[in-house]
Design goal:
about 75% helix; globular; disordered C terminus
């Protein structure tokens, strides 16, 4: 399949929002710039577990440890930046431009505080909703599904990004819920499969000494995380651009140029 054929997956003749369309387009774009998207995801998922591996925190001090919370904040910041750069990369691909990591980093970095705040608010609302009654958390996931892409592409603040996401996702939230749960399953299921034995032993109360197989599983888990996270970044960006097209008839080449 040629590059132009891949891109047209996101630009159908009839304006509609379909999960199959979004997933096919996301896979096509991810494959086109596989190395760049995967490296961005790896930069987001690798540092935090490495830090906790070399500087372990006792389980009984985990939630009260400054190291744990600082690592968590670092993880969120890296994820927000990598997701933003991936979104800009998707825009570049759709606009038939080279995927410039430098340009993406410069643009995402110029709005990093708003982007980080948006990420904190969305994840906070999602997890709080899950803790309360589960359903409110899922509603937050649907409502603010494209808040990150809105923030980075339209250069809005956190509250404006949330409001804009709510407007764009209205009428399509059931589909976005399915998409979000699919992406979440795509990230969780391989990890459970790779580490099934360790998880089973933990539930039984038995531990095991790390060996070569454990380190190989650790490396496989990181690799799977990078692949699934990279695809999730691309899919959220594609969903945003497709919502723009369906709701407002926008063409990515008619959007405000972000690399001037």
């Amino acid at each position: 399949m040629s590059r132009s054929e891949n891109v047209t997956l996101v630009r159908p003749a009839t304006h509609r929002f379909g999960l199959g369309l979004v997933l096919r387009a996301s896979w096509a774009i991810y494959r086109m710039r596989f190395l760049r998207f995967t490296l961005l995801a790896l930069a987001a998922v690798l540092p935090p577990p490495l830090i906790l591996t070399f500087f372990p925190i006792p389980q009984d001090l985990l939630l009260t440890s400054a190291e744990y919370w600082s690592t968590l904040l670092l993880s969120l910041a890296l994820s927000a930046m990598a997701g933003a750069m991936s979104c800009l990369g998707v825009q570049q691909v759709l606009d038939h431009q080279p995927f410039s990591l430098r340009a993406a980093f410069t643009h995402a970095g110029s709005n990093c505080l708003a982007l980080f705040a948006t990420t904190i608010i969305v994840l906070g609302a999602f997890y709080l909703g899950l803790v309360v009654l589960v359903v409110p958390g899922l509603m937050m996931l649907c409502r603010y599904f494209v808040a990150g892409p809105v923030c980075v592409i339209e250069r809005t603040g956190p509250l404006q990004s949330l409001k804009r996401s709510a407007e764009l996702t209205k009428g399509f939230r059931w589909k976005l819920l399915i998409l979000g749960l699919f992406l979440l399953l795509l990230q969780i299921a391989p990890r459970l499969a790779i580490n099934f034995e360790e998880i089973s032993n933990a539930f039984k109360g038995t531990g095991s000494t790390p060996d070569q197989a454990s380190y190989l599983k650790y490396a496989a888990t990181i690799a799977v995380d990078a692949l699934s996270t990279g695809f999730a970044f691309v899919a959220s960006a594609v969903a945003y651009f497709q919502l723009l097209r369906v709701k407002e008839g926008a063409d990515v080449r008619q959007l405000t140029t972000v690399f001037d």
